[in-house]
Specification:
By secondary structure, the chain is an alpha+beta fold. The chain folds into 3 domains: 153 residues, Beta-Lactamase, CATH 3.30.450; 86 residues; 145 residues, Histidine kinase-like ATPase, C-terminal domain (Heat Shock Protein 90, 2-Layer Sandwich). The protein is 56% helix and 18% strand. It contains 11 helices and 11 strands. It has a 5-stranded mixed sheet, covered by helices on one side. The protein has a 4-stranded antiparallel sheet with strand order 1-4-3-2. α5 runs antiparallel to α6, α6 packs parallel to α10 and α9 runs antiparallel to α10. 13% of the residues are buried.
């Protein structure tokens, strides 16, 4: 991503560059037009001045002819000649190219020509004056070079000033950004933004303060509700479950009454499990867990496998494990234990008798695979209360909890079905660190 400064400066530089490119031919046309206009005025003045001065001399026609011959010798670019037959007596202005007689190296130059009729002692003559205009090209070159130099100085100065000013102008914004990065909702501490002399930044800080206050208030309310629900609901559920346990031990129950009580006990156990899982999801969503512990993942995984060994034996499931040593992750040990247990129990629940489960752990991947016959519906896989099988013992929240824990850890979880195996793979490398 590019900083804001480069996004505003780049279009400006491109715009100025386009104007520079356009300005060079415009400069040329404007200066060349002005130069030609000045030369035309100069040539017209030369013609009028020559006519007046020759008439003021008062020489005879023969003397005037001698003076004209002499004029041609000392003024090679000015010509006075008798009118030819059919001369329309009109003035004309044009440009011609020819060798310049004055430079030591012969070169073809442009000349601005002005042809008019003058009268010497009442006799008309054709007067032609030619003025070299090659100097205009040199003028254009220096103007263009100066323009390019000024452009470089302007753009260079703009970039320098922008960089110098951005460090001071954007300092309050960067400070606000740093405070937001370090903000932790679990601490429930508001951010005290400093006053700035920039109206937009003050408005931003004020809006952020209001938003943070609202979030803290909502967080406190949700946290209180979660804590109250955890206490108020679990207690009566535990009492009911206890009473049903006592009732199941009563020998006076008939077979029908026993079945009814047992069904109530199963439903209550499932309700209690759903309640615990919903409260756990609420706590995860509200970021109520400290996520800064350094955990030995391999040790925790081996402990969970040992605890769940009885479940493997009940269904005669063959367990294959490939666990690397010294696998450390940063997170919450309680949540990581929930993730491991839920993922393994989910594999056990959906593995048939005499099936197979493989557990693999490396420094980058935690993977659980179990034998199966057909792929699961990936659209419903991590949704709450979605049923992927006819087994009603689960709460329907196990995979949803796994997904939320992975999201909290910045881990990526994937599912695939290949070689008659359901494979759940978790990338335990932090996605932000990878970026």
């Amino acid at each position: 991503m590019k900083p804001l400064l480069s996004k505003t400066t780049k279009p400006f530089i491109i715009y100025v560059l386009i104007i520079l490119v356009i300005s060079i031919p415009v400069y040329y046309m404007v200066v060349d037009a002005i130069w030609k206009h000045e030369l035309d005025e100069h040539n017209e003045i030369v013609a009028k001045k020559t006519e007046r001065q020759l008439n003021n001399l008062g020489f005879s026609d023969q003397k005037n002819s001698e003076i004209v011959d002499l004029w041609h010798k000392i003024q090679p670019n000015t010509y006075i000649s008798p009118l030819l037959s059919g001369d329309n007596l009109k003035d004309s202005i044009y440009i011609t190219e020819k060798h310049n007689a004055f430079p030591s190296a012969e070169a073809i130059d442009r000349f601005r020509c002005y042809s008019t009729v003058i009268y010497l002692h009442q006799k008309p003559f054709r007067f032609l004056v030619e003025t070299n205009i090659e100097e205009s090209q040199e003028t254009i070159f220096f103007i263009s070079a100066t323009t390019v130099l000024l452009f470089i100085l302007m753009v260079g100065g703009l970039l320098f000033l922008n960089r110098r000013l951005s460090s001071s102008v954007w300092k309050p914004f960067r400070k606000t950004l740093d405070q937001l990065k370090n903000f932790n909702l679990n601490q429930q501490a508001n951010i005290e933004f400093e006053d700035t002399d920039i109206k937009e930044f003050d408005e931003l800080n004020l809006s952020l303060s209001k938003l943070i206050d609202q979030n803290i208030s909502v967080y406190r309310t949700q946290k209180e509700f979660t804590e109250n629900a955890s206490h108020e609901l679990q207690t009566p559920l535990a009492i009911l479950k206890n009473k049903l346990d006592i009732l199941l031990q009563n020998d006076d129950l008939t077979e029908k009454q026993y079945q009814i009580v047992e069904e109530m006990h199963k439903a209550l156990t499932r309700s209690s499990s759903i309640n615990r899982n919903l409260l756990l999801l609420a706590k995860i969503d509200n970021s109520q867990f400290d996520n800064s512990e350094v955990i030995q993942f391999n040790e925790l995984l081996e402990q969970s496998i040992q605890i769940l060994q009885e479940h493997f034996e009940q269904k005669k499931i063959a367990l294959h494990s490939d666990i690397s040593s010294n696998v450390e992750v940063k997170g919450n040990s309680s949540l990581l234990e929930v993730l491991v247990n839920n993922l393994i129990l989910n594999a056990i629940r959906h593995t048939s008798v005499n099936g197979m489960i493989t557990i693999r752990l490396t420094n980058s991947v935690f993977e659980v695979s179990n034998s199966g016959t057909e792929a699961l519906n990936e659209d419903l896989l991590f949704k709450r209360f979605s049923k992927l099988s006819t087994d009603n013992r689960g709460s329907g929240l196990g995979l949803a909890i796994i997904k939320q824990i992975c999201k909290l850890q910045n881990w990526n979880i994937n599912y695939r079905f290949e070689d008659q195996l359901h494979i759940f793979s978790i990338d335990i490398e932090n996605m932000e660190q990878k970026k």
